[in-house]
Description:
This protein is of the alpha+beta class. It has 16 helices and eleven strands. It has helices at residues 47-54, 67-73, 99-108, 116-134, 137-149, 163-168, 171-181, 197-208, 258-269, 287-293, 326-342, 347-363, 368-381, 384-388, 390-395, 399-409; strands at residues 5-9, 15-20, 26-33, 77-82, 87-94, 187-193, 231-237, 243-250, 298-304, 312-320, 415-422. β4 and β5 form a beta hairpin. It is globular and about 60 Å long.
Amino acid sequence: MDSSITKYKLSNGMQVMLKEIHTAPIISNWVWYRVGSRDEIPGKTGISHWVEHMQFKGTPQFPSGILDKAISREGGIWNAFTYLDWTTYFETMPADKIDLGLRLEADRMVNSIFDAEEVESERTVIISERQGSENQPMFQLGEVMRAAAFRVHPYHYEIIGDMVDLETMSRDDLYNHYRNYYRPNNAVMVVAGDFDTKEMKVRIEELYGPLQAGDETVRQQRPEPSQRGEHRITVEGTDDTTYVSAYYHSPLASEPDFFPFIVLDSLLTGPTGLNMFGGGISNKTSRLYLKLVEGDLAVGVRGGLPATIDPYVYSISVTVHPERTPDEVITAIDEEIQRVQDTPPTQAAVDRAVKQARALFAYSSESITNQAFWMGFTEMYDSYDWFTGYLDRLATVTPDDVQRIAQTYLVPRNRILGTYLPTKNNEVAK
């Protein structure tokens, strides 16, 4: 554990992490809940995301409509995110104004109203959000591919939820989900910035100590069986562009294999940013960019290796050149993967891939908000030691490690291969 971190639990079970950073008069306050789309069941998909929306609709102490004005008036920012494994809320504010954020999060942990009219209003908003996603080719393709990748595990579902559930879930469904998961013993509170630890501990105890713990939350345990062969999926739509996407089952973030996989990802498609606030760096030296984009087979390529509690998928997504075919792109991807499998990359190539991954990591760790993010984020799937040991573990990755990861994971039997085809390309000539 980083010696600059103070980590402890309140008597009600809420985990608290504090980090003094005196580079600027700013404090970032986060509350993370161990609930996400992986905790949902058919009939209630999308409920975690919807509950997140309802947390902005007010409590008796902080009625709907005044919160934005209150945060903005004090020079702060706030937001929330729902993901596969977690939901989180944060405020980053001038240091002398952070008490508003602390009070707000303590209050809405237990006192959100879930007004029936607000629920119906938000139903319209979320359905519209779902409809907007459905207009995106990569969402259409990705939803079908994810369902194929996870037949058993609840990663099967999109975070936004299925339309039929968004149309039928009730106010009581949402409120019961909130009461089941929004409790201090299912939360991690993170505060980073310009404060005194002793004083902050006293204030947190005043605000959060009296909150009642609930029953221990038991999360779904439905391990995904090993895939028995490659799945090939075609989705047709009205967009003019053709896309190719490959999903490979990948290790959970706490496994040792995750770190050489990060280097392989950097080598193939450019480094993946794990932090939603991080900047990007160019992927133009990556092997698949050179092969596909410089080779006029594609107009874009990107990869993704999310950090998750359970094994997830590594993705390669390609926007196909208008004058080329999906089969040409798939062949080129396979050739580059085979190249790594047959011959380990040079030490220089690994060093460059590690350097890029390190640079992206550095960019995403600079601000006080980012540092607070990492403290809570890593606790969701491992611990803060994962963050503090990240660079050292990357430095130990060898060319043979990278080759082994490619040989182990990037094989057809472990893959879901998807193609999005414009319907006009498939019209039968009359």
